[in-house]
Design goal:
The protein is of the alpha/beta class and about 170 residues long. It contains 3 helices and 9 strands. It has a 6-stranded mixed sheet with strand order 4-3-2-5-6-7, with helices on both faces. It has a 3-stranded antiparallel sheet with strand order 1-9-8, with helices on one face. About 30% of the residues are buried. It binds inosinic acid (IMP) and magnesium ion. The site of inosinic acid has 17 residues, from β3, β5, α3 and β8.
Length: about 170
């Protein structure tokens, strides 16, 4: 895989502009509350930090890591690799995801996290591929709907590379 195979889908300027809009909406919706952003490693780390920079200064950060895919795009079993450091009980939690594809990863996570009794639990994803959805997911905030292409950059990888591109690209097939 070479960087020459990556075409621009959404430029850095467009991504950052949209993230600022999402943050403005989140700040309004959570006014008077203390928000905990729950970043899903590794793919959401760029989106989470970009979003957090525009959010209220008392915003807390937690991280979990799940593996839903091996290399490539074939779904496998979902495994918890790293859990939050602190309890999320009685917190207003916003799960931050890079992309919702089938929706299976988030379905698994939401079901698991609800059992821990947060005050509220909502979802924010940078990208959504609606054509690929296999399970119903209630997403409160999303950045962009994208076509059924394999996307990379802004946290998203193919075989662990291209996460650090500052734009969202897709792999030409
Ligand atoms: P889901 O469980 O099928 O919704 O898969 C979601 C996860 O798969 C995302 O959090 C990504 O890590 C990964 N994923 C799905 N589609 C893509 C893609 O086009 N590029 C990179 N990663 C993807
Ligand atoms: Mg992910």
């Amino acid at each position: 895989m070479s960087i020459d195979d990556v075409k621009v889908l959404i430029s850095n300027e467009e991504v950052e502009k949209r993230i600022k809009e999402l943050a403005d909406q989140i700040n309004k919706d959570y006014a008077g509350k203390q928000l905990t952003l729950l970043c899903i490693l590794k793919g959401s780390v760029f989106f989470t930090t970009a979003l957090a920079k525009h959010l209220a200064p008392d915003t807390e950060l937690e991280f979990i890591e799940v593996s839903s895919y091996g290399s490539g795009t074939t779904p496998g079993d979902i495994k918890m690799l790293k859990d939050t450091r602190d309890s999320i009980a009685n917190k207003d939690v916003l799960i931050v995801e890079d992309i919702i594809d089938s929706g299976r990863t988030l379905k698994y996570l939401v079901d698991m996290l609800r059992n821990r009794k947060p005050s509220s639990l909502e979802l924010c994803t940078l990208l959504s591929k609606p054509e690929r959805r296999k399970v119903d997911i209630d997403v409160k905030y999303f950045g962009f709907e994208v076509p059924n292409k394999f996307v990379v950059g802004y946290g998203m990888d193919v075989d662990e590379v291209f996460r650090n591109l500052d734009y969202i690209g897709y792999i030409e097939e």
